[in-house]
């Protein structure tokens, strides 16, 4: 039996980042079920840092992660973690108020933005079909993230701090007795007083192994398609482009264009594959919303994105067992917001105060709690969040 101060379950960006944070305070063991780190969602991410993408709390965690991504600790990585990209958000008629709300929120956090008409936005991305849209928000400080460098950096720093990353170590049992968690895996048995559940699409399975209640954090499939850009196009300077309604996004990637229809099909935890219907939807949205034509799909893939009902973070102590810490519900925001999310999760694992900068951005134990109940009103500006007894 190997003893540690913290057992982290999951070796994607969530597990690696919180493992790194906790390794500054004690001995950490990160258990990953696959043969390598980041096999599932982390390795299939669009990998940009945008302060306007995602729901309110996740986008604020991106703001809080910017400093780490732009200026990581000395020796953390051999290459820059981020490089310039820019992001363009397009609003159709009737969606302008939502875009303005996003602009005001970004300005409150000190982010740089530029509001334009859809026609004026062609100077950022010349293939947008401006007849489909009315207005646009340009985010100049959106950046591409080198996911491999980021993940490698976290694991290297974890080992430097005395932590251990163990692949092929799927947790088979997880029991709590006399203040200690015991986890068994094909790679050995481990014990620690605190467990962090960072298992991505498998977080419910880990909670079930621990004998804890269902927390409504479930995986959904996301599809992506890669195709060749128009001949002669200088795509490298194009931004990551989204529509405000979140029905598609596309970006330059390794000389080609990657597009997703932002599908959300419920899925069992698995090695997700591209859905052929969603591949067709992605191509159709490119044809309708841009002047590009998809002649041949060069690559396609699927990945899992895990969401709570309100799409906000699920980070904190389980209500039934405070030494079981959740770091889940990333919903596609895990790479860009992971640095701050890891610090937040680490504060719960250490039984410490939430970092002051995160408090300043509105993070509380209650609004990210795995025990919260979300009442999602489609006509409300935001979900109503509270404790179970608040809705009895």
Model description:
The chain has helices at residues 13-23, 56-70, 96-108, 147-160, 203-209, 276-289, 334-349, 356-360, and strands at 2-3, 6-9, 28-31, 48-49, 82-84, 87-91, 114-117, 135-139, 143-145, 164-166, 173-177, 180-185, 188-192, 194-197, 218-227, 240-243, 249-253, 256-260, 265-266, 297-307, 314-318, 321-328, 373-375, 384-386. The longest helix is centred in the last third of the chain and has 16 residues, at 334-349. Helix 1 packs parallel to helix 4, helix 1 crosses helix 7 and helix 2 (56-70) crosses helix 7 (334-349). Residues 375-392 have low confidence and may be disordered. It has 2 domains: 2-44 and 147-217 and 310-391, FAD/NAD(P)-binding domain (3-Layer(bba) Sandwich), CATH 3.50.50; 87-140 and 219-305, D-Amino Acid Oxidase, subunit A, domain 2 (D-Amino Acid Oxidase, Chain A, domain 2, 2-Layer Sandwich), CATH 3.30.9.10. The protein is 24% helix and 28% strand. It contains 8 helices and 24 strands. The protein is of the alpha+beta class and 392 residues long. The strands form 5 sheets. Strands 6, 7, 8, 15, 16, 17, 18, 19 and 20 form a 9-stranded mixed beta sheet that branches. The termini are far apart. Strand 21 and strand 22 form a beta hairpin.
